[in-house]
Amino acid sequence: MKFNRKKMRDVETGRAYTVFAQRGFDTGLMYFTSMSWLSDNRHLVLCARINGKRQCSYVKMDTATGQAETIADNRSWAGGVVSADDKLYVVRERLVEVYDLVTGESRTVCELPQGCSFHEPPSITADNRTLGLYWFDGTDWVIGICELEKGQVEVAATPRFSEPYPVANHAMINPRNPHLVFYAHEGKTEHIPDRMWAVDRKTGQSRNLYRHRTVGDGGELGEYIGHEMWAPQGNELYYVKYVHSPLKPTGVFAVNVRDGESRHLNGDYPYWHAAPSPDGRWVVADTFQHPSRIVCICTTTGHSELLCTVRRWNDHPGHPHPSFSPDSRRIGFTLAGANKRLQVGIMTLF
Hints:
Elements: E1 4-9, E2 16-21, E3 43-48, E4 55-62, E5 68-76, E6 80-82, E7 87-92, E8 95-100, E9 106-111, E10 117-118, E11 123-124, E12 130-136, E13 141-147, E14 152-157, E15 168-173, E16 180-185, E17 196-200, E18 205-208, E19 214-215, E20 220-221, E21 225-230, E22 236-241, E23 251-256, E24 262-266, E25 271-276, E26 282-287, E27 292-298, E28 304-310, E29 323-324, E30 330-336, E31 342-348
Antiparallel strand pairs: 1-2, 2-31, 3-4, 4-5, 6-7, 7-8, 8-9, 10-12, 11-12, 12-13, 13-14, 15-16, 16-17, 17-18, 19-20, 21-22, 22-23, 23-24, 25-26, 26-27, 27-28, 29-30, 30-31
């Protein structure tokens, strides 16, 4: 399999990037919180031939040539994460599978009981030893982990949020602390006052990491937030406070997981998703706009730089979802071509 490569240059910024596409098919990356790249910073895993049910083939592509090899077919878009030792961990119904991206070997890591089903995306610690997972057991949403040496699923929390927003999702294990697992109280952001949670596996206790501020005497919600991702050192969670929030400023923020104090990085654009670089120096973000802006933000100064402007879809899997390579020098993102087919863009920043 080979992807067509096309050199592009943004007309506003002058930044160059390469687009990879297959004629007649949609192509995308994994979810922005999951690493898509291999450790050589040259190869990455793509979701190829995505269909209307978000089923796809996982392929390993060489960004220097566009040449690709199939890893697995009939898998879910955004159902995998690449570890630092070049293994692709995939959630598939009741199973977690692993594919060695060097040797080509594969096996089942762990499985859930009948009637349960994992949901994407999975996450993994920086030492490649523990997965963060979440699933629906037929009654409740469950947050859990899998220690890879043991190969067994362990329950960390069963949040049981009240209706009409009972869903707990987006579980992400802390990259440096395998005992701390983030999860989100999912729902319409205008109605969720307690989006960010974490469970400490040592104590079994869950706590709300950040309580949204309110406005007015009636205590109406003033902050609409979402799309969290761990900082690489695990001390903070980056998140987006959406532009339609009543309380300003809006934009990209980070909350300290110990004391719940939040800091504002940048609000120059109506941000949507934000992913920190593995070296902790940068955040790359996209925007709600049509077309969407891809922006790089310095985590020290808060200064932003517009990188490029790309077409997008309104729905998954057509959000840009920019994210970094392991060396923090390149970014990948999804964009829609002139024919509205999804493609993957790769830009070298440094």
